[in-house]
């Protein structure tokens, strides 16, 4: 699948290498290297920024009974460990340094195509997301004729779809799972980010597939064969149903928007939500790791 996706001009394989290198650097406590990789990965493709909260939270010292930790100020100062500060400064310096170089090379077009585009993008082809029909309809509206339009009148649901996505993947999942198992948390974050994204295509599946080998050994899917086969079967079949509806729309010219395409999108979304729930439950049952102090 990695080879097939890469032949389409996608760089997801290289991004997977960067994410695994980042995880390896964090787990081996090479903080400066981790900061460099995090900053470069986010510059390379935006989504790895979701890992920053989980990594920062995972890097905390084990709780102590020191009286200085009993006050709010003490807890805040205790949170600011040298490792966390180092990771933050190095990653930000790397990210902003690379972005400055790109801006000086390409100008405002760099900001538009790299960041602002994601707020108003309306990709409606080969998009498994439940937002697909809304994006398809919005693509015909005059307000979308000029890319980068940021007026309040053009603000629609697809422009704020990232709110539940970011709440789940950057706040709730890291807060409750990161100290249990960092690789499993990163998998859950990525799975949630892709599932709730307003644009969900096959290449995004590689973002979480690269983390599966670190989670599967303790997952519920391997010991419970029925559960594993059911999850895999439903994941594949729900995609196939969507692709069949998409084929009729895009190749045969049939109007399959409702209820075929939208129903298939909802079905795939619900299957992914169920799988995400199993992953979160598995990671949540992991014993809190005994970490070395940074």
Automatic annotation (TrEMBL):
The keyword DNA repair does not apply. The keyword Ribonucleoprotein does not apply. Pathway: Glycolipid biosynthesis; glycosylphosphatidylinositol-anchor biosynthesis. Its EC number is 2.4.1.-. It is found in: Endoplasmic reticulum membrane. One of its GO terms (biological process) is GPI anchor biosynthetic process. It is a multi-pass membrane protein. Mannosyltransferase involved in glycosylphosphatidylinositol-anchor biosynthesis. Transfers the first alpha-1,4-mannose to GlcN-acyl-PI during GPI precursor assembly. Required for cell wall integrity. Belongs to the PIGM family. InterPro entries: PIG-M. One of its GO terms (cellular component) is endoplasmic reticulum membrane. Its main location: endoplasmic reticulum. The chain crosses the membrane at residues 38-59, 85-106, 160-178, 190-215, 256-280. PANTHER family: GPI MANNOSYLTRANSFERASE 1 (PTHR12886:SF0), PIG-M MANNOSYLTRANSFERASE (PTHR12886). GO terms for molecular function: alpha-1,4-mannosyltransferase activity; GPI mannosyltransferase activity. Keywords: Endoplasmic reticulum, Glycosyltransferase, GPI-anchor biosynthesis, Membrane, Transferase, Transmembrane, Transmembrane helix. This is GPI mannosyltransferase 1.
